[in-house]
Specification:
By secondary structure, this protein is α/β, with parallel strands linked by helices. It has ten helices and 17 strands. Helix 4 (106-112) links the parallel strand 4 and strand 5. The protein starts with a helix and ends with a strand.
């Protein structure tokens, strides 16, 4: 199952809005086939694993390890449960059951056909891997990651916003990797105004898609010459004023009440499974107050400003710390998985 989870993770940035799934076929303690869900809309992990088995006559005597319950519905591809019923392996072991009611029910069908079924192997590891998918299904909103960099004395910027970079080059490149793994990147109006970010993964080549760029500009006061409005990649501006469509640019009007909740609901409706929020401090404070966050990735750099715009107080459970040259990276989660 550990191998199935390793394979599943290769789908990060490609499989969404589907979950990441890996599959390993074992015959007499030897792996004879494996696969993962490589691309949304493409064959699922079970299909790729079964196709990779050279001698399919071995399948009825084999055990199939799948990191998520085989799907039991027609979507862009046929149900994987049907494929397993066709080849009828001796045993199927899964990591997590599927909490999506449209796709669930595969285990019962396999059991009814006389296939031995086991569930819950490395269950916590599987839920952590697919935390984006499970959050969308169970909480009805995208998974929310807050990312910021701060000085050693706790500031995100100088008072005049003149300090564009706090973290080092290694940290900034890592952020571009993260952007390639999430569906959308979001910033508030001050971050857009003073940093003029492109919100792309240009420094992490090899990923074919760019994240959806999202900015909050309630009163539509941002200059249209900012990178976020250059139409180079799909972007959304959430506001209180108007709905408008332009090439690669959507202006979406939301109600003032519960603005952030409506924003997340709209993103979910667009198939967004995860959002990396890169600022600024006012937006972070609002999200903390509403309990609308799941993970924090915080860089601490060895600089001191003495005064300026204070970083949020880190919340949640400290998951781990990493060192990137002279920067420290802290990972925090709102609740253990």
């Amino acid at each position: 199952m550990q191998r199935a989870l390793e394979l599943a993770r290769l789908g990060l940035g490609y499989a969404s809005p589907n979950p990441m799934v890996g599959c390993v076929v074992v015959h007499q303690e030897r792996i004879i086939g494996e696969g993962w869900h490589r691309q949304y809309g493409g064959p699922h992990a079970e299909v790729n694993a079964v196709e990779s088995v050279a001698d399919k006559s071995l399948l009825p005597q084999s055990t199939v390890y799948v990191s998520l319950e085989p799907c039991n519905h027609w979507g862009k591809t046929p149900p994987c449960t049907d494929l397993l019923l066709q080849h009828k392996p001796k045993r199927v072991v899964i990591c997590n059951t599927d909490s999506n009611p449209r796709a669930a029910g595969g285990l019962q069908r396999l059991q009814a056909a006389g296939i031995e079924v086991e569930a819950g192997l490395l269950e916590k590891d599987g839920r952590w891997l697919n935390r984006r998918f499970f959050t969308v299904v169970e909480k009805k909103r995208p998974y929310i990651i807050l990312k910021w960099a701060q000085t050693a004395d706790g500031f995100m910027a100088r008072s005049d916003y003149s300090s564009k970079w706090i973290s080092n080059a290694y940290a900034r490149q890592l952020v571009h990797k993260w952007r390639s793994e999430e569906d959308a990147i979001l910033v508030g109006s001050n971050t857009a105004r003073y940093d003029n970010p492109q919100l792309t993964n240009r420094d992490w080549p090899g990923y074919p898609r760019q994240p959806l760029r999202v900015v909050i500009d309630r009163q539509l006061l941002l200059h249209q010459n900012l990178h976020l409005f250059d139409a180079s990649y799909p972007s959304i501006c959430y506001n209180l004023k108007e709905d408008r469509e332009a090439p690669n640019l959507t202006f979406r009007q939301l109600a003032a009440d519960n603005f952030l909740e409506h924003l997340l609901e709209d993103l979910k409706g667009r198939g967004v499974q995860s959002v990396l929020i890169e600022g600024g401090p006012r937006l972070f404070t609002q999200l903390f107050e509403l309990g609308l966050w799941d993970e924090i990735r915080m860089f601490v750099a060895p600089h001191s400003f003495g005064s300026g715009i204070a970083a949020p107080h880190p919340q949640g459970y400290l998951l781990k710390k990493e060192v990137l040259d002279d920067n420290e990276l802290q990972w925090r989660v709102r609740q253990p998985w």
